[in-house]
Amino acid sequence: MAIHLTAADDREPLIRALHGAAGAPVGVAGVVAGMTRRARLARLGRALGRAVTEAFAWDDADRRDGRWWPQGISSSADASPEEQVAGRRLLVTTSYARRVAGATQGCRVTFVDLDTLRYEHVLLVEPGVDADGAPTLAPVHLHAGGVVWHGPWLHLAATARGLVSCRTDDILPVADPDVADRLGVADGRVTAYGHRFVLPVRRLLRAGADRGEERFRYSFLALDRSEEVPALVSGEYARGTRSRRLVRYEIDPGTALPRVDADGVARPVSLGEGVGRMQGVVVRKGQHLVSVSNGPWLPGTICSGRPGRMRRHLLAVPMGPEDLTYWPSTDRVWSVTEHPRRRWLVSMPRGWFV
Q: Which end of the chain is less crowded, N or C, counting CB atoms within 10 A of the terminal residue's CB?
């Protein structure tokens, strides 16, 4: 295949220095134990779409927030064969921050406990060092249009940059002012955003293409367990005549990372054609479900079938559907919507689209 991903340097030394300055990382278990926000059941109705049979709304502040926009979704069912992490059934979503007064707060992930409906935001950060060699961190600026939680890794779609990966074991608490001071954030660049935990980026898989080939835009991301070797599936959001390709990268079972060759290059094992305005995808035994946005006021569409032969299910999901993820034991598909005052986590039976 003419497109590819190239592994960049691992940030292990920088992350080890962060751990030394902040204390022991707490991982997902620490986030679950310290969740401070609560979602609520949402009343079903036409606005939620014909296929939706379960929905949750964020708390009022997050539902109305004009700065943070939800994008990606995955779950502990992707992360573990037992479908639990830290003993809980969890969703994880991504959000990016829009610019306000010329500044942006970066992007974050949010862990949601499906049994208690409590949740917590975790800011993604770039580890670094200052002029004196002391560890620092700064927000990561990504659209974060999709996410896959596989084993200890969170893989995020980074559009033209490729894929960004973090280890959930690296999650650090930063609410303590002394910790913030040691990490060079005493001016409140992290804690003022309301984040009590941060997750450093560990590695980048940089997007590339052979000469004469258009580079791939990694707009969203999903885990495909249809084959013996699991894979990451990504696609391109597109309007007009822009490319709208779907691509599949095998995962190395030993590392839970995309499989690379001796030169550190990952190449896709398949490539197909999607549809316009794609926002997310799930794959189950060859069947693709693709979410399509129709703007902030019209309900979204789910397309089902195989690439190039998709059937449209109109009015299936709320307005502004984003990424998709599949929960095997319940045979359900989850999505997250992005627009203020119309933000939900929604669940649909996969069989509705067959």
A: C
Residue type, 282: V
| C-alpha count within 13 angstroms, C-beta hemisphere, residue 340 | 9
Question: What tokens does 65 get?
Answer: 């927030």
For 133-184, the pLDDT digits (tens) are 888 888 899 999 999 999 999 999 999 999 999 999 999 998 766 666 666 5
3-state SS string for the chain: CCEEEEECCCCHHHHHHHHHHHCCCCHHHHHHHCCCEECEECCCCHHHCCCCCEEEECCHHHHHCCCEEEEEEEEHHHHCCCCCECCECEEEEEEEECCECCECCCEEEEEEECCCCEEEEEEEEEEEECCCCCEEEEECCCCCCCEEEECCEEEEECECCEEEEEEHHHCEECCCHHHHHHCCCCCCCCHHHCCCEEEECCEEEEEEECCCCCCCCECEEEEECCCCCCEEEEECCCCCCCCCEEEEEEEECCCCEECCCCCCEECCCEEEECCCCEEEEEEECCEEEEEECCCCCCCEEEEEEECCEEEEEEEEECCCEEEEEEEHHHCEEEEEECCCCCCEEEEEEHHHHC
Domains identified in the chain and CATH numbers: 3-353 (2.115.10)
The angle subtended at Cα 107 by Cα 104 and Cα 108, nearest 5°, is 135
Q: Per-residue pLDDT for 192 more than 50?
A: no
pLDDT of residue 185: 55
d(CA 20, CA 227): 41
Report yes or no: 277 and 294 within 8 Å, Cβ to Cβ.
yes
Q: Is this structure's pTM higher than 0.85? A: yes
Please answer whether residues 258 and 205 qualify as being in contact, where contact means their C-beta atoms are separated by less than 8 angstroms.
Answer: yes
Which tokens belong to 162? 């490729």
CA distance 276 to 206: 25
Note the Cα 164 to chain centre separation in Å: 10
Tokens of 313: 């299910």
